[in-house]
Every structure is written in structure tokens, then in C-alpha cells.
Design a protein that fits this description.
By secondary structure, the protein is an alpha+beta fold. 37% of the residues lie in helices and 19% in strands. The chain is built from 14 helices and 17 strands. Strand 3 (68-71) and strand 4 form a beta hairpin. The chain is elongated. The chain binds one RNA strand through residues 6, 8, 11, 59, 61-62, 65-66, 82-83, 111, 113, 115-121, 125, 127, 194-195, 198, 260-262, 282-285, 307-309, 311-312, 336, 338-339, 368-374, 376-378, 384, 386, 388-390, 400, 402, 405, 407.
RNA sequence: GUGGUCGUAGCUCAAUUGGCUAGAGCAUCUGCUUGUGGAGCAGAAGGUUGCCGGAUCGUCCCCGGUCGACCACCCCA
């Protein structure tokens, strides 16, 4: 015999036991419900992607160090998707002639990053991706930001629980150009800006001066009248923010340090932060990527969207103690059998209930009835019916509510409604 | 990729300066009898102290390595 295998899961990934998976499903169900109300359709794709699609326009850091990339047996370079947006862009590009734009699409893919596991970060997580494809800046941006807010609110969050920080890549780019920063130096400036909050002001100033700018982009944005392009882009962004505020999104602010890590963003970028002082971190974000689809040829197709990870969302729900109903798939009724020989009849009785949508668990053991009740309690099944010779003979059952201990006879036809009402 | 903290039963934790057969609670299972409960009582099972090596008369305890978890960086979701 060889050594026993390890029961540990692979480093940095999670096993989802039924209880864990029920929580994920509850998250996903709430997302799907909200998105359906807004007319969004769900799509999906394989986690395996051609490696090349991450190399053109996404952050180099990710490709170099943070993806699972390998050669398959046919010498193709394969990557486990680190994010969904390039896949979305590829799928849209592939069928650009037959799709009906604008597209309102979402997906809840698992995505992979090879990096050191840490709080809120593992090597695989599920990430809701919501995208609105085929419309330029304006109402599309507003819908996406509102939807991001709406999804958090659908979990019971209040507007004071989070803040939406917005900026614009076009504004930042215009300010960089006006400040004499172009190409690599502009890109480096954005990365520096992204880190600003974590740096001391002197360290930031030193790194900034090292880039050799003629002016300070942030000052240009503050005094936008100095440059007409900056002024125009700033007005567009502020107008967008004002529109959101006018439509009940009061927790949105302009924050020029929001840049987002990916290079493919072209217009608005936003990031949603938890306002809880013990955990004031970024929850998720998104932005506009008008040139990504054109990487596969043809004219650009404008798009805007966001991605929301399941781990940070679950943490958010946990820290704010928001309720999450995880009972939707659980059995509602435990059918106990006084004798093991009653099992076939109990299954047959269960079938009539199942046909009416009742989730019924039938005992298959020869345990004593009292132990079966204990078993039902332990499994968190709310109702119990003993089904044996007496019930068959009298064609009548008594249903027990395990929480209260009450037990009463009732017509079989009433069982489905009682199970649904839960009492 | 860098640095720090930590690995003892399924879980939460004990174990005297390095010294008897590594303990407890919870959870699990079996009884307290065969048509109705979460309690109680009795009992059982559960461990190569993450793994490998070293130092020592002797190690859960010291040292090195390795794997893993957590935390802070880096970066990002």
C-alpha cells in the first residue's frame, strides 16, 4: 500500500460542503433575481482560455506572475481565466454580426489567480460580472453604477454602508497629456495614483517628481479651466455623478485616485468601498472598456461593466450582519418509518408530495422512531411525519412541527401549503 | 515574490525548566429496548503532536528544512 492521500484541498482554494455551497447559492440567487429585474441575461464559458487573450491589453503583472498558464498536450498555451472580461469581449467579437445590441449580460464564473492566499483573497473565487455592451458613455454608465449599488442593496445594505468612488480614465489621460506625461510615463503615473492612499505624502511627491512631469495632473483636474480637454472630461464625469445623485445614489463621490489596475479601461472607472471603519476596503469595481472588443478585429464596440467577488461580498454581508436565506433547497419534511418495512410505502407517499413540489426526505435506516426525530432535528428539517401501518390503515397522517413540538392530524392535501408557510 | 505569527483528536483548547501510557469539553457512535425529541446516565471510538531530518540519555516542547494556515507587504478582485 502507498501512503494515504492528503484530504487537504489544493493550496488557496476552497471546498464547498453543502452548508458552504448553500451560502454561495443564496448569494448567486439574489444576484440573479436582481439582474433579471433589470433585463440582464446570464452567459457562461469555460475557465480554460487561450493564453494570448490576457497578454494584449491587460496588466502585464497579471500575465507574468498571477495566472495559471501551461502548455496542453497539443502545445497550445492555456490559461485558467483570471477574470471574465476578456472572455466576454471575445464572445461578443465572435458573434458581433448576429448579436442584438445593446447586450445586457452577466455571468458568475470562477476565476483563478496564482498568488499568495490572504484574507479576502484566494486562488479561486466566484465573481459576478455584469456588462452593458454596445452603448457609449452616458446612460449606460449610469445604469451600470446604479445596478452595482442595487445589488448591494438587494442584500439589505443601506446607502451608508458603502461609498462609490468614481473617476474617469479619459479625464486622467487628458490631465496627464496636459501635464506632459504620455505613454509609459502616463501609465506609471496612474499606477502611482492608485497607490497614493497607502503612501506617505513625501514618498508620493518624490515618486511623482521622478516621473518628470511639467505640471501636476491632480492640480489640473482641480483647476480644470486651465485646459479645455480636462475641463470637458471633468464636466462629463461630474454630470454623471450628479445624475446618479439625482436618482437616489447619494453615496457616490469623485475620487481621482481611483484608477483600476487593468489597462483596458477607457472611460469611467469606479470602486465600491465598505464604510465600516473596521474594514474600510475596496469591495469591487468596474469601468468602461470601449476598445477591448476591437482587439479581435472590426470596429470598436463600447462597453461598461463591473465585477464583484464572492469572498469580499460574503465578508461585507458578514460584517454588516445582513440576513441571508440559505434554506431554499433544504428538505422541508422528514418522513419517518416506524419499521424498515414501511420504507417502500413511505417513499410512495413521498412521491405524491414531491409531485406537488414538496422537498421530502425519507428515512432509510432501521433506527427507532425517536432517533429519527433526533436525526430530523439535527438536519434542520422543520416538519416530521411518521408513516407506517397505522397511517396506511387509516389513510391519515399527523404532522409534527419540530421547533414547537406540536403534532396534529391534517388532510394530506394540506401538507404542501403547510410546508410552504413553514408553520 | 518579501517579511512575520502559528501548526496537538472532526472542532475549540490543555500538557510543569526537556522527563510516567499526550488530556478535557463539544461533536460522533453504542446502550439505557423495540410508534415520537435537543436533556440525563453509562460506555466506545477517535493521535506516527502537519511532514522530513538534526541535537539530546530522553522531546508536543530545542535547531534546520519542507508543506499548510493566518497576517502585513507587493499587487489586485
Amino acid at each position: 500500500m502507498s501512503e494515504p492521500l492528503s484530504t487537504d484541498s489544493y493550496k488557496g482554494v476552497r471546498d464547498f460542503y453543502p452548508e458552504d455551497w448553500a451560502r454561495r447559492l443564496a448569494l448567486f440567487a439574489q444576484m440573479r433575481e436582481t439582474l433579471a429585474l433589470w433585463g440582464y441575461e446570464e452567459y457562461n464559458a469555460s475557465p480554460l482560455e487561450r493564453a494570448e487573450i490576457y497578454e494584449a491589453k491587460t496588466s502585464e503583472e497579471i500575465v507574468r506572475d498571477q495566472t495559471y498558464t501551461f502548455m496542453d498536450r497539443g502545445d497550445r498555451r492555456v490559461t485558467l481565466r483570471p477574470e471574465m472580461t476578456p472572455t466576454l469581449a471575445r464572445m461578443v467579437a465572435a458573434k458581433r454580426r448576429e448579436l442584438t445590441f445593446p447586450l445586457r449580460w452577466f455571468s458568475i464564473p470562477n476565476v483563478f489567480r496564482y498568488e499568495r492566499p490572504q484574507k479576502g483573497r484566494s486562488r479561486e473565487h466566484y465573481q459576478l460580472n455584469v456588462d452593458l455592451v454596445g452603448l457609449p458613455e452616458g446612460e449606460a454608465d449610469i445604469e451600470i453604477v446604479r445596478l452595482a449599488s442595487e445589488i448591494l442593496k438587494s442584500f439589505g445594505a443601506k446607502g451608508t454602508d458603502f461609498v462609490i468612488r468614481m473617476s474617469s480614465r479619459t479625464l486622467l489621460n487628458a490631465a496627464c497629456v496636459a501635464a506632459g506625461l504620455t505613454g509609459e510615463r502616463a501609465k506609471n503615473y496612474l499606477h502611482l495614483l492608485d497607490r497614493k492612499a497607502k503612501m506617505t505624502s513625501t514618498a508620493f511627491a518624490a515618486a511623482f517628481v521622478a516621473l518628470g512631469p511639467k505640471k501636476d495632473p491632480l492640480e489640473l483636474i482641480a483647476n480644470a479651466s486651465e485646459d479645455p480637454r480636462v475641463a470637458l472630461e471633468k464636466k462629463k464625469l461630474l454630470d454623471c455623478i450628479e445624475s446618479l445623485k439625482a436618482r437616489d445614489i447619494s453615496n457616490v463621490v469623485f475620487d481621482p485616485s481611483i484608477t483600476r489596475g487593468f489597462d483596458y479601461y477607457t472611460g469611467i472607472v469606479f470602486e465600491v468601498y465598505d464604510t465600516n471603519p473596521t474594514n474600510p476596503r475596496s469591495l469591487f469595481g468596474g469601468g468602461r472598456f470601449d476598445k477591448l472588443v476591437a482587439l479581435w478585429g472590426g470596429d470598436p464596440i463600447p462597453a461598461v461593466g463591473f465585477g464583484m467577488g464572492d469572498i469580499t461580498l460574503a465578508d461585507f454581508i458578514e460584517t454588516h450582519k445582513l440576513p441571508l436565506d440559505t434554506t431554499s433547497g433544504k428538505p422541508q419534511l422528514y418522513l419517518g418509518t416506524p419499521r424498515a418495512s414501511d420504507i417502500p410505502a413511505a417513499q410512495s407517499f413521498a412521491d405524491t408530495l414531491r409531485a406537488q413540489g414538496c422537498r421530502v426526505f425519507v428515512n432509510l435506516t432501521d433506527r427507532a422512531l425517536g432517533d429519527q426525530i433526533k436525526d430530523a432535528v439535527k438536519r434542520d428539517i422543520p416538519f416530521f411525519i411518521a408513516y407506517g401501518a397505522d397511517e396506511i390503515a387509516n389513510n391519515a397522517v399527523r404532522m409534527k412541527i419540530l421547533k414547537t413540538g406540536e403534532e396534529a392530524g391534517l388532510p394530506v392535501s394540506e401538507i404542501p401549503t403547510r410546508l410552504r408557510s413553514g408553520s
